[in-house]
């Protein structure tokens, strides 16, 4: 039976939720040139892929965080996944805003959360880890016992790994950059020789020397 990392990698590539373009790099908001484009929101409009992703998230949570009591999605990309997985698992869910509302009760955490409840954060993508750590910190300040994070995809960037470790945050992703790069080559989305260039980018995104590989 195909393992989950490979299955999800094939799914994401098939709908271009993770799309490799080493010959024509994308430009991130930071100005960094990237050979990969990620939009896991596309899983929501692909029912077969969505089914694989949500069931895999639920199974991962059962395995890695068996004591979970509440799911909390990141705003905005994690909200739908937390809702669907919460339905599958029969668990309450909520989400954490990027900032407090400026009206009403001025909530940053939406949904009922009691102090001491065991929470798993649902995220779609982990790169440098900054945004999900902010969510974890908000939940911890509210008195939650954050067991960790589950995500669809991670780059495995060293900066992100270091940040998560420093914040004492566990993350388990369904698939990762290395697996997707390998599957992309096997499925002919990219050339075999592109894998080293992609890994070089992942290891040091600010170093553009990997771009010379197409010359």
Question: Helicity range of the residues?
Answer: 25-40%
- In the predicted model, the low-confidence regions spanning at least 5 consecutive residues are none
Number of strands: 10
Average pLDDT, rounded to a whole number, is 93
The share of residues in extended strands comes to 15-25%
- Major beta-sheet overview: 6 strands, mixed
Structural class: alpha/beta
- Give me the number of helical elements: 7
- Give the SSE order as H and E letters: HEEEEHEHEEEHEHEHH
The side-by-side strand order for the widest beta sheet comes to: 7-6-5-8-9-10
Distance linking N and C termini: 39 Å
Radius of gyration: 18 Å
In one word, what is the shape?
Answer: globular
Q: How would you describe this structure to a colleague?
A:
This protein has helices spanning about 5-15, 45-65, 80-90, 130-140, 160-165, 175-185, 195-205; strands spanning about 20, 25, 35, 35-40, 70-75, 95, 110, 120-125, 145-155, 170-175. The protein is α/β, with parallel strands linked by helices. α1 (about 5-15) runs antiparallel to α2 (about 45-65), α2 (about 45-65) packs across α3 (about 80-90) and α6 packs antiparallel against α7 (about 195-205). The radius of gyration is 18 Å and the shape is globular. The longest helix is centred in the N-terminal third of the chain and has 18 residues, at about 45-65.
Summarize the structure.
By secondary structure, the protein is α/β, with parallel strands linked by helices.
Question: What's the topology here?
Answer:
Elements: H1 4-14, E1 18-20, E2 26-27, E3 33-34, E4 36-38, H2 47-64, E5 70-74, H3 79-89, E6 93-96, E7 109-110, E8 118-126, H4 130-141, E9 145-154, H5 158-166, E10 171-176, H6 177-186, H7 194-203
Parallel strand pairs: 5-6, 5-8, 8-9, 9-10
Antiparallel strand pairs: 1-4, 2-3, 6-7
Helix pairs in contact: 1-2, 1-6, 2-3, 6-7
């Amino acid at each position: 039976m195909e393992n989950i990392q490979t299955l999800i990698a094939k799914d994401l590539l098939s709908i271009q939720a993770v799309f490799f373009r080493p010959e024509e790099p994308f430009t991130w908001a930071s100005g960094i040139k990237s050979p990969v484009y990620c939009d896991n929101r596309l899983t929501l409009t692909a029912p077969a892929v969505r089914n694989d992703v949500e069931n895999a998230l639920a199974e991962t949570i059962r395995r890695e965080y068996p004591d979970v009591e509440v799911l909390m999605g990141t705003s905005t990309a994690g909200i739908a996944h937390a809702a669907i997985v919460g339905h599958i698992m029969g668990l309450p869910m909520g989400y954490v805003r990027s900032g407090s509302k400026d009206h009403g009760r001025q909530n940053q955490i939406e949904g009922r959360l009691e102090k001491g409840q065991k929470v798993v954060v649902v995220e779609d993508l982990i790169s440098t880890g900054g945004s999900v750590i902010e969510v974890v910190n908000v939940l911890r300040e509210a008195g939650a016992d954050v067991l960790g994070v589950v995500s669809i995809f991670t780059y495995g960037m060293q900066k992100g790994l270091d940040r998560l470790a420093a914040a004492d945050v566990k993350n388990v992703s369904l698939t990762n950059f290395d697996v997707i790069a390998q599957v992309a080559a096997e499925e002919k989305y990219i050339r075999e020789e592109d894998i080293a260039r992609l890994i070089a980018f992942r290891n040091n995104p600010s170093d553009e020397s990997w771009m010379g590989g197409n010359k």
